[in-house]
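Provenance

Sequences were taken from public entries as deposited. Structures were produced by running a predictor on each sequence independently, with no templates supplied. The record for Phosphatase from Vibrio sinensis is shown for reference.
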Amino acid sequence: MELVIDTHTHTLASGHAYSTIIENAAASKHKGLALLCTTDHAPSMPGAPHEWFFSNSRVLPRFIHDIGILRGCESNIMNVDGNIDLLAVTTPYLDWVIGSFHEPVFPPSSKQEHTQALLNVIKSGRVDALGHLGNPRYAFDIQSVLLCAKEHNVAIEVNNTSLTGIARVGSDIICDKIVEVGKEIGVYFTTGSDAHFCDDIAKFDHVIPLLEKHQIPEDKIITTSTSRFLNFLQLRGRQAIPEFEHLY
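Predicted structure for Phosphatase:
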């Protein structure tokens, strides 16, 4: 299996990452990617940049080191209502928005509350993917959330960092179940390294074996081709990106 896009990466701007977007793009080129989503943490995360950082992402060139750049954000799911910490006026400047739980922003609660928050953020239409869902501190009803994600064309992230056993310990077991159920339901999967240092860009050494274990069809993994990914964004109602015309 070949993955040509990394949809979850961080730069110095996140406050606890260690590389620039130029370094991340150079690493992407070295590792054979075609597109890179830059997804720094949204403002509610400690150390994260101001809202203006994301609205000003329009100044980023569409290609750095010949790698197509998707202007994105890892937003925080704020509450049971499924609100995220980006203003509605900001999201039109972005190509790709992940919604994730983070302890400093949404302290772990009950399975029922986590489930309701995920259902509401999906239905809001404001996120393109749900990030690192395997965290055992955020138990949720996998079946109902994935059914809702399929209905609303929200991708389910398979996060390499979650599978290492170092971060979000215990995620590997839950991620396995999510992928298993996701295949049965027919959700779209996306793949993110969650790199906080450029050497970890495109690191999918745990992601690929998990997807292959469950024999996920390539047409359900939106990162297996540029056209698949960009067409998924259009499926979600986003406008085509003229600079990427040759990649559709």
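The chain has one domain: 5-239.
The beta strands are 5-6, 35-38, 63-64, 67-76, 96-100, 129-130, 155-159, 189-192.
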